[in-house]
Amino acid sequence: MIKRSLVLAGLVLAIVLGSLGLTAFATDNPPTIAALGAAGDVLDSTLHDKVDTLLRTDVGLAGSQFRVNARTGVVTVGGTVPDEHSLRRALDLASGVRGVREVRNAMEIESPK
Asked: For residues 43 and 70, what is the distance between their CA atoms, to the nearest angstrom?
């Protein structure tokens, strides 16, 4: 029983020490940092495209104009919408996209013509 506990403790220690070494390597290695940044840019671009397409093709948001910006999972939706209902719908749709951590509102409601 003691041998089994020691083996388990050694395994846990090896995993912890290994992950610490990887963290130090990742932060001290410029090519790794650049690769992580490039991967983040791809994810941001994908989120931008998904949210933008979803908002522009939604029938309930016809007549609205959107500007979408995505950065590290935070999506900012700007532009103009005809009413409060459209504004809430756009924010709800954007927040439902997988990978979106937070949605920020930069939209304005159009004044009646």
From this structure: 9
Report the distance separating Cα 34 and Cα 75, nearest Å: 22
- Distance, in Å, from the CA atom of 94 to the CA atom of 30, rounded to the nearest integer, reads 34
Render pLDDT for 4-25 as a digit per residue (tens, 0 to 9). 666 556 655 566 555 555 444 4
Domains and CATH numbers, the chain: 2-109 (3.30.1340.30)
For tokens 């504004």, the residue is: 87
CB of 63 closer than 8 Å to CB of 82: yes
pLDDT in tens, 30-84: 554 444 455 566 688 999 999 999 999 999 999 899 999 999 999 999 999 999 9
The alpha helices in the chain, defined as continuous H runs, are: 2-28, 30-57, 84-95
Provide the whole-model pTM: 0.63
30-57 and 2-28 are packed helices; what angle lies between their axes, rounded to 10 degrees?
80
